[in-house]
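Hello,

Our lab assistant flagged a job as stuck in the queue for most of the afternoon. It eventually completed. Since we weren't sure the result was trustworthy after the delay, we are filing this so someone can double-check. Below is the sequence as submitted and the structure that was eventually returned. Let us know if re-running is recommended.
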Amino acid sequence: MKAKKVAKRVCGIAAVILAGLLLLIGSYLYSARYRISDIDAVTSPDGEYKIVFQAVGEPDWPFGPSHARIVLKHNGDTVAKRRYDVANDGGVLHPDNWSVRWEENCVKVILSGEEQSDELYTYFFDGTVRQESLAAREPETREPVSGEGYFAEQTAESPEIPAPNATDSSEETPVLSGQDPGELLDDSVLGIRIRTTGEEEAGIEAEFQEIGKLCRAEYLQAEKIPSEYLGQEKIGREDIDAMEAALSSAGFCVENSDAVYPNYLENAETLNRFWDDVSKGQDASATVWSIASSGSVYCRAFRFAGGKGFCIHATGEWDDAGLLRPAYLEKREILYWEMTSSGFLYQDKYLNRQWTATDLLRLAPVDHDLYAWTEKYIAPIGYLNCNLFLLDWDGRDFRNVCLNDLLPKMFRMEYGDDLSARDYPSYGEPFSCSMIPADLFESVIYKHFDIPLDEFRERACYDAENDAYPWQNPDCGSIPYYPELIPEVTKVTENADGTVTLLVNVLCPDKHTDHLFEHEVTMKTETDGSFQYLANRIVWHGENELPSPQSQMEVQPNG
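-- returned structure --
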């Protein structure tokens, strides 16, 4: 009996030790492979966006890569997230392994490692991510501006500056001539930064004080909701609307923001008067105000004096006494501006494939009914990395339409998430690709086209042996660069056969046009929400070269 008790006790102790060991091993494996740890985070100047740098597990032993994840968030919602391997000589990642630069419609991140070239990742606010190696870039032999790090060290060519209403943007003009060298703060990769004068700074501070008095009550009464931005707070949509209304009712030119529709300017006549004076060569000024989700206030102060145009960007934060004070201020030379039928185009950054250089301030709200067509059927497909809307085609002749390139677009339309190539087997022959199960591929794409299944399979390179379709994950080097394109459905025609035809106007701010080209999309929509694309036709285009319809994969000829 005594021997049995001892044996049971020994077995119990062994079981506890074994359980402890298994727990330790499991904990180690989790920490080594899966645990997500925040390394650093940076919030955009307007408080709307946050980019987070995270470590995934531990570096591969002994000198393998470190695993990172970068997540872009907007008001707490994830816009895009990507995982990367960083060759860092087996070392853990630190905040100095990345640099961040905020732009109007994106955030640019550079990842650095001990054993790799710097890599530039551009996270656009629409969820698109682009990658570029900086290995071939040569730095300038100048000291960077404090806080700009690597971004300030890169070389950029300054574009020629067109005058207001100029028809040939390649002609130089005295209207926006270069600044006095003594005024320049920096000629960086972004644009020409100019020193602000004491008078300008005092003027901006006075404007913020006036604005603060108008919307202070609305801000103080707003419920402060804990934000995901490292201990910051945010206010609700209704409170933002109330602050905007307070400024608008007082006659200020303020952006009317919305969670669904594009922003537009209230009291836009302020900007119209400004442009009239600029066109006459008269000194002029106009300030556009915006409210961030944090309740902070952002302004763009456009100025034209002595034949020179510039914009002062400033962010105002609320202090403990409830007063609005400038917390960030930057002055940049205007490289181009123009008033169009869609709004005010202005450029104060150099044109570069890594960011949008020209911004559009809409002077009026979009038509909500037409915008619904754009958002549901056109914008999710777009013109980047797929050619559905860049070619003439119909059900009889698909020509060079690449169905495979539509997979990530339509996957996101179907599931609201990004397709990851890592989730599927990859092959190197006959070309590098991931193989997507046929049931998934067809359920996402085939239902949106009115063509026989056998023809669909032939056109999309169906692999009968593996019951799968090839798909190539797009990267920065595989698709020719083209600036951001903005589609807008301007007319909906109901046809006698029950189909509809959408007339789409395409804007391209960086091409300095709100009318790059027009195309017609014929569709069939059903009351249950299902739809099919039946045809596309380019009906007009201007002098600018259109985006390349080049596909990721070699398209298959009609059978």
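-- support follow-up --
The delay was a queue issue, not a problem with the job. The result is valid. The mean pLDDT is 83. Residues 2-33 form the longest helix (32 residues).
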